[in-house]
Fold these 3 entries.
Entry 1:
Amino acid sequence: MDMGAYKLFRKDRIRGKANKVDILLGVCYRPPNQDDEGDELFYKLLADVSKSAALALVGDFNLPDICWELSTAEKRQSRRFLECIEDNFLLQLVNERTRGGALLDLLFTDRERLVRDVV
């Protein structure tokens, strides 16, 4: 599927313990100058995959104006990203700044206990 300038480096389906749950693991890169059309393609893909297996999505999303503690953002594109994350019931698990005082590298999951001990 075309995702605009987004880069999906890897997408794996992992069989859970005793074949109880599949985990979809995705690694993404969102360029800082991503246009709205590319973002919307990504949001559609995310909505599709978040309906199936347990999801873990990691990557550099280049949205430094998002405050994850309050779920707020200054820029329209960032607010739309937050809306997509909320619409798909995803949790963002990285709490410490990752680069130059900004929180750019993120980890999302749709199940609270799927990922532990994020450092």
Entry 2:
Amino acid sequence: MNNHLLALLMSLLLSGAAIADPVEGRWWTEDGEAIVEIRLLDEGLAGRIIWLLEPRHPESHERAGQPLLDVENPEPEIRERPVLGLRILEGFERRREGDWRGGEVYDPENGRTYRARLRAVDEGAGLNLRGYVGTPMLGRTSHWKRLEGDIPSDRGQGIDDHDGKGEQ
């Protein structure tokens, strides 16, 4: 029986199934106002917002004090969904370790979806997200930093505090 267990462990290690890609994990967005969790799912790499510094609409908004909703979405029927827990990255295919292409990034601030690439940098401590229209030359790169430690509990709001936990 020990030989079977050893063989199983070796096959997992050799297949790479036991080793996470450097882009997986929890990431501070460039502006420090959100944390996005990126995971490999059956349908590919995906990421969702799991923490927001300002989880409610500002005082200047008609929904002041209410949970931040996806009000800029071009599809009226889903504008009531919360931004906290929202999937904003999907469809990425692995080119090589730490380099994912062919995906999309959704920006809830303007309701637009862009083609995107993800690349781990700084030995896995950083992540470059390039969102673009048409060609990567017509885009912008955002640098995210890996979250070290726990999600902040002294400010903002995390997904565990939210009624609609949602799914990745």
Entry 3:
Amino acid sequence: MSGMIINDNIASMNAQYNLNRTQEALAKHINRLSSGYRVNSPADDPAGYAISQRMGGQVLSYNAAIRNANDGTHLLQTASGALMTDNTLLLKMRQLAIQAANGTYSDKDLKVLNQEYQHLNSEISRIARVTDFNGMKILDGSHSEFKFHVGIYTSIDDRLSVKMGKLDASSLGIGSTKILDRSDAKNAIDRLDSALEKITQVQGSIGAIQNRMEWTIKNLNNATTNVQASRAGIRDVNFASETAAFTKRQILSQSGAAVLAQANLIPQAAIKLLP
């Protein structure tokens, strides 16, 4: 439409429309630069927002799995320390039994050796009763198997387990042993060897799971880093490009405001036509 009109200032309307769009874009740039995120709401990027939220959930799950693995490692370390003590006690008991099997000791000597032997025997049972982690007894048989959830899903591959069972003197087969004569001593030696083998097997299982825990934690940390990096690529703002766009919108806002002021003056030219 050409000609001079005053009821509808089309130039001013166009200038207002463009200035409003510039201001809206400028507000988005400010929001992104102040928050550090390119995607602050579903409206910014629906698909990107959904993906970033899902990845955020993965990161939280990975962190929980890492904590589980660390807690499991600490439990295994507690059990391993107790079993190392048991192993030392059993070796000392075997040493006493070897001494008692020799024919050079009197009955009085054997009673002294047996007294020490029985104290060591009782200590093994006491360790089984008192060894606990987070209020849970781990060697008294109340928990025959410990399962550790070290993944972010629910499959069997997301769990590690280790069996320990009851490891007191009776369960090890040495509860009733004594070394009051050579026959008793020889029987004790055989039973102590079996007990040492059982302790060693449990220690081996614990050690193997501890090693797997370490590798699991490393893998979980690596997965967490990769997911966070992918999420950052989707959600985080590129400050270089965003700052450039922000500067452009600032210039357009200033020029748009100036143009709008000039457009609003156009109808005033009609006054000059009046006589």
